[in-house]
Write a structure and sequence with these properties.
Layout lengths: L6 E4 L5 E2 L2 E2 L5 E8 L2 E7 L3 E5 L9 E7 L8 H9 L11 E12 L2 E10 L2 E14 L2 E11 L15 E11 L1
Parallel strand pairs: 2-6
Antiparallel strand pairs: 3-12, 4-5, 4-12, 6-7, 7-8, 8-9, 9-10, 10-11, 11-12
């Protein structure tokens, strides 16, 4: 229930680059099985540098980060635990999650950003499939991926919290 974000992370938005994200409209949401059903949440404060050209995706790059203290699940006590407890995000010690692409590839369904995802000081390879819908000087990046929270030392191994976190990204952009 606590993770993700990662992705976030996971992570197509931007303040610089050839695409500038509308950070107020960007959505980084996640879901994970909890002891009483699925927990849904989101992160805000996205910052990113997006270089992307549909005609030449291999020349592009995406670097993005989000502040872990912005996690919101709709339950104040849960949010407090997520941001303050060492087993979860410990936002004082690990203030950001980040993603840095190494390569962007064209796929049958859109694109995939391959790179490094860092959460709680742990960096692992990550693949973020995404689509891009452009219209002149504006567009929308949409991504959907999963991560294993235990790979990033988030939460306790096993237990009543699911091991897989699903992350969805919707990032409106302008040139």
């Amino acid at each position: 229930m606590k993770l993700v974000f990662f992705i976030a992370m996971s992570l197509m938005v931007g303040l610089t680059g050839n695409w500038n994200a509308d950070t107020a409209a960007a959505k980084i949401t996640f879901s994970i099985k909890g002891p009483f059903g699925t927990v849904n949440g989101n992160f805000s404060s996205l910052k990113a540098d997006i270089q992307f050209d549909e005609k030449n995706p291999g020349a592009g790059s995406i670097s993005a980060s989000v502040e872990t203290k912005t996690v919101s699940t709709g339950v104040g006590l849960r949010n407090h635990d997520l941001t303050h407890k060492e087993e979860w995000f410990n936002s004082d010690k690990y203030p950001q999650m980040s993603f840095h692409s190494k390569k962007i590839e064209k796929t049958d369904k859109g694109y995939t950003a391959l790179g490094d995802l860092t959460i709680k000081g742990v960096t692992k390879p990550a693949e973020i499939p995404f689509t891009f819908s452009g219209n002149g000087n504006s567009g929308v990046f949409k991504g959907h991926f999963t991560i294993k929270r235990e790979d990033f030392n988030v939460g306790k191994p096993g237990g009543s919290v699911g091991s897989t976190v699903t992350v969805d990204l919707v990032v409106p952009v302008k040139k």
